[in-house]
Structure to design on (569 residues):
């Protein structure tokens, strides 16, 4: 079944120059392995097609049940150069939470999703 | 030596709630108040102010705030760390001293002044000696923007601030310094942490990162169960209750709104984060993958287990430079077919700009209410949207071109699609773009200076 990340995680995003950073935090510890498997740099780059023009890097924080993504060249130059409404990437958090991942029925049951 | 100290965040950025620092002082016990006044390009504004008036160049709102809280700070032994000094730290300290005297506090306190961060006058000398100050993001050499530089400051760390506290300062005012340093310095001063106690320095740094954005860790901008966060109108700004062993609790004053819990702290930990293994500051490298969090009661989160590594040999430098001009024009189109009307208006505008021969480095159209924040991820806009704001931004090096653009927005009201409004703000303003150039400088090139002013 397809599960939207809003059911599995919460998120916070910010900026570092022309790069948006998105922190993705598992709502429950049991959801972290799922995020680790399915929310990869590649799948995030694909999700943000048309928005993120550069590379995507992923970092793991198992101590916090979280992943940190850097979306390079996403903010129209960033900072004062950018003409975007969201020049500081503050809404990239929920943009990532729109992403859907494939979860088997068994897995969904074992982590209490269904 | 104190075993535990309470460090309160007074403001997350220059422009944050004006009452927040006063509330921190008045709503409960604290030992320190830290205040961040400097965004990335604030220094350029302050340099311009100083060029017009040699007594200016610091955060003016700091002085009236001090007037409000200084008597309480003296009475209850609260100390303040703030980067309000901008590019005229001496001027700021003098104004604060005058305010203190007016309050009858003459002879009752010392003001610490930390400088040595400003390298604007040294740029040519540094370049000539091979200190390249290359852009950390693009690798470009500084000479590409040399004649447009407006400010240049190295980020000082906690050490000189701690030294000022050691010398008896009640208020420590700096120019450019790291936000985390403003929080770490009180811990170094109170607990006597060594300059190479990397784990403890990392812990203080992380405490600083958690509270440096004010309420953004205590319920503000919190995505986790945001609808149930109580009374944000009265949000309590965060307090780091730090222990000498390097562990700390994030909390807020009793009776305030907002919420401090593990999710809210996690969200702030991930904010503006690069590689979590390597959070580099002048004082140490902090490893965010070692942080442990635990609930410690209502609105209390304990933070422990933090490890750090030796500091690097460099300091980060923030240089600001002129990078042209920009302007943003907006109009609001109402139902029916709000999105279609806004798109049609954009097409008309672009045709007119083309016919005028206006060339921009960038022109960007967004449709607020339809897909401005999430772009293609928002899908097709609903045909029944109540209203859509057309927002067109332009950027370029020729001020006259940008100015000419601003005159093409209002006419769309009488010469474009119908049911249009949202123009009462008048013609869009042309804004000078001051851009940010991050670079590195060897620590050997920078000597922090600590002065203490007796009031």
């Amino acid at each position: 079944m397809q599960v939207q990340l809003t059911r599995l995680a919460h998120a916070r995003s910010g900026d570092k120059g022309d790069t948006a950073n998105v922190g993705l935090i598992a709502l429950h510890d049991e959801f972290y392995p799922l995020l680790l498997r399915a929310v990869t740099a590649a799948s995030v780059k694909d999700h943000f097609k048309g928005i993120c023009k550069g590379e995507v890097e992923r970092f793991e924080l198992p101590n916090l049940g979280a992943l940190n993504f850097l979306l390079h060249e996403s903010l129209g130059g960033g900072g004062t150069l950018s003409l975007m409404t969201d020049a500081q990437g503050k809404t990239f958090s929920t943009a990532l939470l729109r992403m859907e991942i494939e979860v088997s029925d068994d897995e969904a049951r074992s982590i209490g999703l269904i | 030596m104190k075993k535990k100290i309470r460090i309160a965040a007074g403001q997350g950025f220059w422009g944050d709630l004006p009452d927040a620092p006063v509330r921190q002082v008045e709503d409960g016990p604290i030992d320190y108040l830290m205040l961040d006044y400097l965004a990335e390009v604030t220094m350029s504004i302050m340099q311009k102010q100083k060029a017009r008036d040699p007594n200016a160049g610091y955060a003016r709102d700091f002085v009236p705030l001090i007037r409000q809280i200084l008597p309480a700070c003296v009475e209850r032994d609260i100390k303040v760390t703030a980067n309000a000094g901008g590019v005229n730290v001496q001027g700021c300290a003098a104004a604060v001293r005058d305010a203190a005297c007016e309050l009858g506090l003459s002879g009752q306190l010392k003001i610490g002044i930390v400088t040595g961060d400003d390298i604007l006058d040294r740029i040519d000398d540094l370049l000539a000696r091979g200190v390249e100050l290359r852009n950390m993001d693009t690798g470009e050499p500084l000479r590409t923007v040399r004649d447009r530089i407006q400010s240049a400051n190295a980020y000082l760390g906690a050490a000189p601030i701690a030294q000022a506290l050691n010398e008896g300062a009640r208020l420590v005012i700096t120019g450019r310094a790291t936000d985390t340093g403003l929080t770490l310095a009180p811990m170094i001063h109170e607990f006597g942490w060594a300059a190479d106690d990397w784990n403890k320095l990392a812990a203080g740094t992380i405490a600083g990162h958690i509270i440096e954005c004010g309420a953004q860790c205590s319920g503000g901008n919190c995505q986790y169960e945001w609808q149930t966060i109580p009374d944000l109108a009265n949000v309590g700004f965060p307090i780091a209750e730090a222990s000498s062993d390097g562990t700390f609790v994030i909390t807020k004053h009793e009776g305030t709104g907002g919420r401090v819990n593990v999710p809210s702290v996690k969200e702030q930990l991930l904010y503006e984060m690069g590689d979590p293994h390597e959070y580099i500051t002048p004082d140490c490298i902090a490893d965010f993958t070692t942080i442990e969090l635990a609930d410690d009661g209502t609105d209390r989160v304990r933070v422990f287990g933090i490890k750090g590594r030796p500091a690097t040999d460099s300091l980060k430098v923030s240089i600001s430079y002129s990078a042209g001009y920009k302007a943003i024009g907006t109009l609001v189109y109402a139902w029916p077919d709000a999105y279609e009307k806004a798109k049609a208006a954009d097409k008309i505008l672009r045709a007119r700009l083309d016919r005028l021969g206006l060339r921009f480095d960038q022109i960007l159209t967004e449709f607020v209410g339809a897909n401005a924040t999430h772009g293609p991820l928002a899908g097709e806009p609903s045909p029944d949207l109540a209203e859509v704001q057309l927002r067109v931004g332009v950027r370029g090096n020729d001020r006259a071109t940008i100015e000419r653009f601003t005159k093409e927005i209002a006419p769309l009201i009488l010469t474009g699609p119908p049911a249009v409004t949202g123009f009462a703000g008048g013609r869009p303003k042309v804004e000078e773009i001051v851009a940010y150039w991050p670079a590195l400088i060897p620590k050997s090139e920078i000597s922090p200076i600590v002065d203490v002013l007796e009031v």
Notes: The radius of gyration of chain A is 14 Å. The mean pLDDT of chain A is 96. The first strand of chain A starts at residue 2 and ends at 4.
